[in-house]
Amino acid sequence: MAGGAVGVSSVAVNSTAQTVTLTLAAPVTSSQAVTVAYTDPTAGNDALAVQDLAGNDAATLAAQSVANTTPPPADTTPPMFQSAAVNGANLVLTYNEALDATNVPAAGTFAVTVAGSPVAVSGIAVNSATQTVTLTLAAPVTSGQAITVAYTDPTAGNDALAVQDLVGNDAATLAAQSVANTTPPPADTTPPVFQSAAVNGASLVLTYNEALDATNVPAAGAFAVTVAGSAASVSGVAVNSTARTVTLTLAAPVTSGQAVTVAYTDPTAGNDVLAVQDLAGNDAATLAAQAVTNNTPSAAGITINDTEAGNVINGGSGNDTLRGNGGNDTIYGGGGNDYISGGAGNDVLIGGPGTDLLYGGAGADRFVFQSLADFGPASAPDYIELIAGDGDQIDLSAIDANSLISGMQGFTFIGTGAFTGQAGQLHYQRGTQGGTQLVSADTNGDSKPDFQFVVGASTLTANNFILGS
Question: Distance between alpha carbon 149 and the CA centroid of its chain, in Å?
């Protein structure tokens, strides 16, 4: 038996059943391997042998395997708790063996806490095959909440109202255990929120507060960009999910100091793939025109000291120093914050975009603004030194004084009078520096300045301007 000999303490023969029963000195246990052999005591027939009713001896029997039908010992081991997990309103306890699904424990034997507060158990189901007890909670848990579960065996012995295995062994009382919370977070319905915008040359970058969908890119037409008050085309759009940015490529680069705005229009009222959207597909809201931080570096300035003859002098996009000296010169500052001096002669000075300092010098000089982009920002307006006795004039004839109607309209000079809500009014007031005047224009009738510049003069009259018509 299992490799060791076991003594036979007695033998019984049942003629009718045709059996020989051996009583072993020690009982075998379930699943042990057993063999039996028999030796006929003599060569002939004799009464001390296994024989039939006629006295014929059974032959010697070599070792034979014996079917071991000894039943296993009774199961007295209770089921053991393994783990617990919750998803919404379903809390599942897993045990280490099949459970009794016919006799279900009472709800009151379980205690559940959610975020430190008790939550009632409204139902219990036992699944024998999956070795689980599922508690239905009166209120579902949410993602991230801390959950515990405890169980109390209702009596000291085995009973039908407990968590038990198939033979009725009760599971032990369970102190509060942490429960794995697998409840998914709620669906993301919050759209990405615009944070800021900055431009450098031809790249305008809008930053949002969360990762964006870089697979579905909004159309260029959904964006509106202005540079120095004029519309600028968007030639390309790229989305970087990780950086949370939308980068617009402008058809023409901006220059340092130019005022830039950007606006965005969500193409539809619902969520769609042609919009700025987050990874869950929530569309960013329509964005009214926002000021853009201009990080475009200034180009290197140039310095030109002209001869005494009249010449045309062109600055670059940097902060230039341009001197005409003698002669009737025409000087273009270009982009940047330029210093322009006409010197002697009847000069034409065109500062261009940026904050420019314009000095005509001797002679009847003309200071020309060609577009709204030529006026410096309100925080740093252009400065013009005007010598009225020389016949200097400030030429605004290329600027439309009234943006509310079509065509080119001339300005109306109202001296130091206040704006009265009429588009096209031009007035001045004392500047912050002695001997200067701050000139302002209202082009849309809202009584607020739409552009400004400073003039170095003790007073101003309509004759100091070319107002247009």
Answer: 35
